[in-house]
Design goal:
about 100 residues; 6-stranded antiparallel beta sheet; about 20% helix; about 50% strand
């Protein structure tokens, strides 16, 4: 996987980093969001959507000595509060894409 086109923005007061993901050999994959639920959080939530924001999978980072960081996709997010925040983030992401391409 390769991460690119990273954006940093606020979505309804939530601090968000969004990156487009694609497979190293080419082809679309999805969008990864790292976001803070509260301004004093120290660890962001990480979610990936592969279906244009219809569902979100939790993502986790694992550090391997000498090999860097590996991301692994986990469970599909079901928490109503997180899903509400992710819908807001998805809409703000598209507004930010429009703003950055203008």
């Amino acid at each position: 996987m390769r991460k690119h086109s990273t954006l940093h923005f606020l979505a309804d007061g939530l601090q968000v980093w969004a990156s487009y993901l694609d497979k190293k050999e080419g082809g679309p994959f999805g969008v990864m969001f790292k976001w803070m639920a509260h301004k004093y959080d120290v660890t962001p939530f990480e979610h990936v959507t592969q279906d244009d924001g219809h569902t979100y999978q939790q993502a986790e980072s694992f550090i391997f000595l000498g090999d860097g960081v590996e991301k692994r996709l986990g469970l599909t997010e079901t928490d109503p509060e997180k899903l509400k925040a992710l819908r807001i983030i998805w809409a703000a992401y598209h507004q930010e894409l429009e703003r950055s391409s203008a």
